[in-house]
Here is the input.
Amino acid sequence: MGFRKKSKSPPVLSHEFVIQNHADMVSCVAMIVLLGLMFEMTAKFAIMFITVQYNVTETLDTEDKPEPVSYYKYGPKDMATVFFYLLIAIILHALIQEYILDKINRRLHLSKTKHSKFNESGQLATFYSFSFIWGCSILTNEEFVTNPTFLWEGYPHIHMAFQVKFFYICQIAYWFHALPELYFQKVRKEDIPRQLYYICLYIFHITGAYVLNLHRLGLVLLVPHYLVELLFHASRLFYFNDFWIVQTVVKRPGLCLSRRFTLWALLFVITRLLTLTVSVLTFGFGLSRTDNQGFSLAEGNFNVLTVRVTCLSAICLTQAWMMWKFINFQLKKWREQSQIQASKKKAVSPKSRPSKKDSRGETFLKVIFSLVLI
Here is the structure.
């Protein structure tokens, strides 16, 4: 990990050297970009990496006097901005891992499997909480709460506020940074396909909403989804903490700790239904009935049947895949609980078992009680 002092230094530019010092090397690259601001020749290139590009100023007519308002579009230069904030995400990732998660891991003494899941949940819970608060602050300034038709009215929405564009830049940069982190964090081979699936899905959907000028819909769908994911990873963090308490303090390894996921399971299903409802409402009824129909790259208009069906199909397939994974997860937990209960029944001593006479008496009482009910 970055920022960590080692007693033995591995060979320079070896795999272990890169993994241990990747945050320091990335910090040097980011510092070179920042130093470019100090010189007039390189300042215009450095600004392209640091600041949000494609500023557009419009004048709004008010009662007193016209007021200029700044909006932003997207373009090829955004890739440079995404690259810079990808470097920042790698540095922040290493800081959280080194100064927070590793210290907690030393106290919990988890196995390698649980250690990997704890690090994953710790990083994602931090990101989801920050993104959820940021997204809610943006939505409070929008008209969605009072007027849901703002999702499709006036499409194409080529103009974005600074907060909206910077939000999407940071989202895309974070999920792209998660790809090299699979190597930097030494993720186990059996965990790589699972993490690659959801990382690529995030990149695909967020970038698609950004490029197709569907940033309003994307923001409305991301905020509740991030809330649900935050609850899941927070519940898993508490689960590992409770697991450590049960194993070391209470010393009851068979104690069930899965109740922390109940709220997450309920909100997960509700969010999937909400996502499908809003998506069908936007693509099936809203955009299909707007006046501005057509396909134009220059105007940023993608309101044609092919694009609408493709976007809606991608969302529906993703939600179906997530529900399938959710059902498998719940079945796995149910099997674990049933095995724990079965092991408890086997552990009951013969003295505590009811005798044949008692069981016959209970059967007789049950028959009498059923007859009385009839």
